[in-house]
Structure formats: structure tokens, C-alpha cells
UniProtKB/TrEMBL annotation:
Source superkingdom: Bacteria
The name this protein goes by in its record: Large ribosomal subunit protein bL35
InterPro entries: Ribosomal_bL35, Ribosomal_bL35-like, Ribosomal_bL35_CS, Ribosomal_bL35_sf
NCBIfam families: rpmI_bact
Listed SUPFAM superfamilies: L35p-like
Coiled-coil ranges (or none): none
TM stretches of this protein: none
Recorded family membership: Belongs to the bacterial ribosomal protein bL35 family.
Gene: rpmI
GO cellular component: cytosolic large ribosomal subunit
GO biological process, one term: translation
Pfam annotation, one family: Ribosomal_L35p
GO molecular function: structural constituent of ribosome
Length: 64
């Protein structure tokens, strides 16, 4: 049986913490930033935990 391949898009978007939780970046922080308020871009700065409903699917894509 061949090895499972890691999903290339998923490995760029998610990271695993030391305790095994999945982190993601927030949306709407990529472009058109001159139209968005500084308050909004600061709020979108931090990483967030992946929702519980998506964890199983993402872990499978990452091969965890």
C-alpha cells in the first residue's frame, strides 16, 4: 500500500501546536488592505483555532 500524500494546500494553511491542536490564519487580510480600517486589520492579525467540526477532515489532509 502506498504512503498517504500530504495535501499541499492544507500544509500551507494550517499548523499543529505542541499539544496537537490546529491553528489557522484569519480571512480578509491578504489584499485591498488600504480600504480596510486599521482596527479591522489588527483584529484579523492573530491566529485562531480550527473549529471542532473541521478538525478531523484537516488532520486527514495533513496525514496526522
Amino acid at each position: 500500500m502506498p504512503k498517504m500524500k500530504t495535501h499541499s494546500g492544507a500544509k500551507k494553511r494550517f499548523r499543529v501546536t505542541g499539544s496537537g491542536k490546529l491553528m489557522r490564519q484569519q480571512a480578509n487580510r491578504r489584499h485591498y488592505l488600504e480600504h480596510k480600517s486599521s482596527r479591522l486589520t489588527r483584529r484579523l492579525k492573530g491566529d485562531k483555532l480550527v473549529s471542532k467540526g473541521s478538525v478531523k477532515q484537516i488532520k486527514r489532509m495533513l496525514g496526522i
